[in-house]
Amino acid sequence: MLSKEMNERLTRVGPGTPLGNLLRCYWYPIARTPELDVEPVLAVTLLGEHLALYRTDSGKLGLVAQRCAHRGASLAYGIPEEEGLRCPYHGWRYDHTGQCNEQPAEPADSTFKDRIRIPAYPVEELGGFVWAYLGPEPVPLLPRWDVLVRDDLVRSIGVTHLPINFLQAMENSMDPIHFEWLHAVYGNYVQKRQGRPPSMTPRRHEQIAFDVFEYGIYKRRLLEGEDPTTSDDWLTGHPVIFPCILAVGDHTRPTMQIRVPVDDTHTLHYWYRTEQRPPGSPPQTSIPIDDVPYMHKNGRLVVETINGQDMMAWVTQGEISDRTTERLGTSDKGVILFRNLVLEQIEKVERGEDPMGVVRDRAKNEPYISIAREGVALRAFDIQRELTRAADREIAAAERA
Ligand code: FES
Ligand SMILES: [Fe+2]
């Protein structure tokens, strides 16, 4: 169990907090590009900061503070113009650096606007996302993860807005044992309650292991009956990219789960999926997007899918899990490792160093950063993924009806 202070150190993401300073060293996806086709100005919250993301008619992107410096109306209702975002209330306009460049009601020769500036942050598009960086300069490179860039893949992006601190989702990714219980034993119980046959055979974890690498941690497992000299899940394992990405799937269909820390008690969870592009078919021109619900209309959490089961576990821990009352066992060594890694990286930032995985070397980033994955994903994951996608679609359709 942790002290209250330590739990705060590991979970508070706002400006000026130790973790907030660490998390600000990385880029985060804040919207899926197709969302801007529907609404060119979006209200976005990232790391506790309320922002307005906009795209002009010519495609220029900007990200500025939501609150107008004049009298506080929201720029998320602003008008995107080539020269910046105009406040809906009295027409003040801010360029992409946050500099006010027009105040229509002030005298033409006034220099007042020159002294008005609001926070603004760099944004870039990649892989169907708009990414933002809220940290100090020099701005690191936006990492070109293979899954975002490879041209042999077609993509789709689901999203879930979760009422939890992001660390709960990350700790789950460092906890291989839950697979055997939450997804197999409990998953089968849920199937049985629905009159369906079991979807997985629970297999005991004989060994779990974790290896820190340049961009994060590999978690590995050896299930009973598996050969340690051939098991891909033991030899390669699943990469967790620090601080907030789980990479799953094999090289033919790599996926990512990206847990964007919105604020202390909210996480924007992206489900980034890929399939092989059929040979000879044209590259994808637009990426389909969808919502993945974590709750049914009747208020019960979704437990009929792998994703739902994970989210149920995170959400029921509370908005910020009270780690002062937890009781960790030997099987929680991955969770402990992740927390220690976070604390170490906080200290690095406090010493003025880059934390792990910040990319500044263009040669490493081009054409993309390959993350070693299993050659062939664990079959159970693959089967479950199909079931999960089908069930997600069913649940989403039921919610819409
Ligand atoms: S509140 Fe924005 S221009 Fe007045
Ligand atoms: Fe899981």
The tally of structural domains comes to 2
> Which overall shape is indicated by the principal axes computed on the Cα atoms?
globular
Number of strands: 18
In DSSP terms (H or I, runs of 4 or more residues), the helix count works out at 11
| The first-level CATH class name of the largest domain | Alpha Beta
Which architecture of the largest domain would the CATH scheme give at its second level?
Answer: Alpha-Beta Complex
- Biggest sheet features: 8 strands, mixed
User: Structural class of the secondary structure composition?
Assistant: alpha+beta
Strand order of the largest sheet: 12-13-14-15-16-17-11-18
Percentage beta strand = 25-35%
Q: Overall mean pLDDT score?
A: 93
Residues in helix, %: 25-40%
Characterization of this structure:
The protein has 401 residues and is of the alpha+beta class. The chain is globular. Residues 376-384 have low confidence and may be disordered. The relative contact order is 0.16. The chain contains eleven helices and 18 strands. 27% of the residues lie in helices and 25% in strands. The longest helix is centred in the last third of the chain and has 22 residues, at 379-400. It has two domains: 32-133, Rieske [2Fe-2S] iron-sulphur domain (Rieske Iron-sulfur Protein); 146-400, Naphthalene 1,2-dioxygenase Alpha Subunit, Chain A, domain 1 (Alpha-Beta Complex), CATH 3.90.380. It has helices spanning 4-11, 18-23, 33-38, 146-149, 166-173, 177-193, 232-235, 306-316, 333-350, 362-365, 379-400; strands at 27-32, 41-46, 49-55, 61-65, 79-81, 84-86, 93-94, 100-102, 123-126, 129-133, 153-162, 205-213, 216-223, 238-241, 245-248, 255-263, 266-276, 289-291. It has an eight-stranded mixed sheet with strand order 12-13-14-15-16-17-11-18. A four-stranded antiparallel sheet has the order 5-6-7-8, with no helix packed on it. It has a three-stranded antiparallel sheet with strand order 1-10-9. Helix 5 packs across helix 9 (333-350). Bound molecules: FE2/S2 (inorganic) cluster and fe (ii) ion. Fe (ii) ion binds next to helix 6.
